[in-house]
Amino acid sequence: MTDPRAASALPDALLDRARAHVPALVQGLVDAATASLSSGAATHAIGPDRDQIMPALEVLQGRRQRLIRALEDAMHQALAGPTPLGGSGGGAGALTLSLISEDRVDEDIEIARVVQQVESQAEWELGQLSALASSARGLDGIHADAAPLRPAQVGRALREACLTLDLPLPPRLRLLREMG
Predict the structure, then answer these.
(1) Taking the CB of residue 52, how many other CB atoms lie within 10 A of it?
(2) Distance of alpha carbon 81 from its chain centroid, rounded?
(3) Which of 31, 52, 58, 62 could be disulfide-bonded to 174 (CB atoms 3.0-4.6 Å)?
């Protein structure tokens, strides 16, 4: 039988490997988004698309290092937090209602799209990662939330990094979409 305390925390070696790969992951995200937005079709876009593309491209080219640092920091923060298993990871406290801005709703929708896209494109790889992380944690069976950095966490890290850039909502959503 496995000690429940050992199963509830990711092994340090697994977290260290995940942390070590954050710079390469971030570089890949930024490079792919830059290539996508720099393509001929994107730079010759007209109308509203151009109004979103050009500010996002300016960030990827002109404020690249700031974006990379912000994204690395947000991903390291996601890795530092608890890795819940089962359920929503929330507490059992009373339900509360609060107002959220329309921008936040739009960002949440975009993050959900990014997560869905990543999960559909990398289904096999994510399954393998979940199996390995579940095994490393000594869990019975495969748990999708056993991996140290899941698509939803990366999506939230993308949002946090984009918020530091003071972009209006449409180009910020475009940047989220391209990096996703």
Answers:
(1) 24
(2) 14
(3) 52
Closest CA to 146 of 125, 129, 168: 129
Residue 107: CB atoms within 10 A of its CB come to: 22
Q: pTM for the whole thing?
A: 0.74
Name the region of 138 (left: φ>0; alpha: ψ -120 to 50; beta: rest): left
**The tokens of 178 are what?**
């391209």
The region that residue 166 occupies, defined by phi over 0 for left and psi between -120 and 50 for alpha, beta otherwise, is left
